[in-house]
Amino acid sequence: MDTLLIKKADIAKVLGMQSCIDAVEEAFRLYGQKKVQMPIMGYMSFDNYNGDMRSMSAYIPDFPIAGTKASTVHPDNPNRQMPTLMATIILIDPSNGFPLAIIDGTYITSMRTGAAGGVAVKYLANEKIDTIGFIGAGAQARSLLDAMFVVRPKIKNVKVYDIREPRAQEFEKYCREKYNVEVQLEGRIADAVTGCQIVNTSTASRQPLFDKTVVSPGTHFNAIGADAEGKQELSPSILRDAVLVIDDWLEASHTGEINVPVHMGELKREDINADLGEIVTGQKKGRQSEDDITVFDSAGLAFQDIVTAWKVYNLILKNEEIKSQLHKINFAE
Ligand SMILES: NC(=O)c1ccc[n+]([C@@H]2O[C@H](COP(=O)([O-])OP(=O)(O)OC[C@H]3O[C@@H](n4cnc5c(N)ncnc54)[C@H](O)[C@@H]3O)[C@@H](O)[C@H]2O)c1
Hints:
The chain has helices at about 10-15, 15-30, 105-125, 140-150, 165-180, 235-240, 250-255, 260-265, 275-280, 300-315, 320-325; strands at about 5, 40-45, 50-60, 65-75, 85-90, 100-105, 130-135, 155-160, 180-185, 200, 220-225, 245, 275, 295, 325-330.
């Protein structure tokens, strides 16, 4: 039996954002119904290299599929012309343990991260969205942008701020060419927040990026960047007053947007309104009024990776042309 080796170009040929959002939404639904096994993420810090590594596993019996992802985050990598985040996924047949595929996890991580932001917007943001903002214009920002246009296709304006201006310019080009909308490059973070109905933050920041006073009523935040202890993008005062939705308490309180305020005693478990699975399954309510501020804290969960990789694997099995050209490896040889 062969294990498939699936690279980014193959994934890009079969996986669109709409189908990724559908898969990730279904996985959040199953998680909300307690039908997913997911041990807490393993984490190691490469202190000398300003980097880290995580190992993340999940088992979704309904499909049935299991798998694990090894991923690294090195915020200095853009200076080396390398991605900040790199990852590899092994997809496992839970019935016999066979490794079905080894899949590029870098692209899947971006897709599933954008998709989770899309699911959060679908359930938590206001319906009428004209203007969206981005703080941080890297890899995750692009997939978040794609997801925003799937769930709120009538967006007219995009504002962006990045501490590295060339990155904001590349994002602007991508956005204009793909969606033909107005893009404003902002010189100050606050200007990329005020007046937006959705704001996506995806930086490696370790301190709040802006103050509550610049937030317009009704804004939905996707807080994506914090995925390790000590990382933080939003001010605790925004989190405390918002309808606060996390992806998972154990992961979010260790590594997500809430990790710093929870450890500082500035935020308590009672301040969390729901997790996204509870919102998707209708067990809990999100936004109550047009003026509510809503926040989705995405620490990033293993089942998002596994469900996305499973989707890709199945799409590739159905595509004879791509399947026949794939590299395969027989580990038993
Ligand atoms: N929650 C999740 O599921 C998830 C998934 C993937 C990545 N992440 C995290 O998201 C963050 C971004 O990942 P990426 O792959 O897009 O990285 P990236 O390096 O491609 O992009 C990050 C961008 O943020 C900019 N930036 C850094 N500090 C900033 C600041 N203070 N203000 C404005 N811009 C700033 C950088 O210049 C860069 O362009 C990382 O912290 C990563 O660990 C989270």
